[in-house]
Design brief:
200 residues, mainly beta, 4-stranded antiparallel beta sheet, 0% helix, globular
Length: 200
């Protein structure tokens, strides 16, 4: 698949759902550019069955593991290629069909990343969300859920570090930085857990 914009700006490709076998059988690569010589944005290297969409997107696949494929290309083109050995039928009862969208952004992405701080003595961890830039939004909203529960929001977050938590060592936190001007520039930070380095 090749997607090319008619103007300038950043393009986004995001999977809504879709099952892929282990990389032994199926391979998916996404590039920033017009061919597979561009910058590699995503490569399916997992050795187990995966969902390409975000956490919770699986409909048919039992016990899914999520890759949450969401890539951005500054070149104005996105090239995606897939190869399969044909060992399983994607129309089977345990494979979700592939659904994705491609858009040209009408906004500037916020620059957001995070670090995990373990509190080993209390079997907890916290997430330090570092908002380095707001893009073209006046602020961002942080939305997170704990183990798939109801979302919790922290509004009017500016440039700087916002601490979330503490959470139990076994919790999984799904974190989204919401661009307050356009949902196209929301940044999905994925499923976050403790570092796993605390002594047992």
């Amino acid at each position: 698949w090749l997607y090319t914009s008619v103007g300038t700006g950043v393009m986004r490709l995001k999977f809504l759902r879709g099952t892929i076998e282990s990389s032994t059988y199926d391979d998916l690569r996404i590039y920033d550019g017009t061919s597979n010589t561009g910058t590699l944005l995503f490569e399916h290297t997992a050795t187990a069955l995966r969902q390409l969409g975000p956490v919770g997107s699986a409909v048919l696949t039992p016990n899914p593991i999520y890759s949450s494929v969401d890539v951005f290309a500054a070149s104005g083109s996105i090239y995606m290629e897939m190869t399969s050995d044909g060992s399983a039928n994607c129309g089977g009862t345990e494979f979700d069909p592939w659904e994705w969208f491609v858009v040209c952004l009408d906004c500037q992405l916020p620059a957001v990343n995070y670090t995990v701080a373990d509190d080993c003595a209390n079997d907890q961890f916290s997430i330090n969300v570092d908002v380095q830039a707001l893009g073209d939004a006046p602020s961002v909203t942080l939305s997170y859920s704990v183990n798939g529960g109801a979302p919790v929001t922290v509004e009017n977050v500016g440039v700087g570090v916002e601490n979330l938590g503490p959470f139990a060592e076994t919790d999984t936190i799904n974190l989204l930085a919401i661009h307050t001007g356009s949902e196209l520039c929301n940044v999905d930070l994925g499923a976050i857990t403790s570092t796993g380095t605390c002594p047992l």
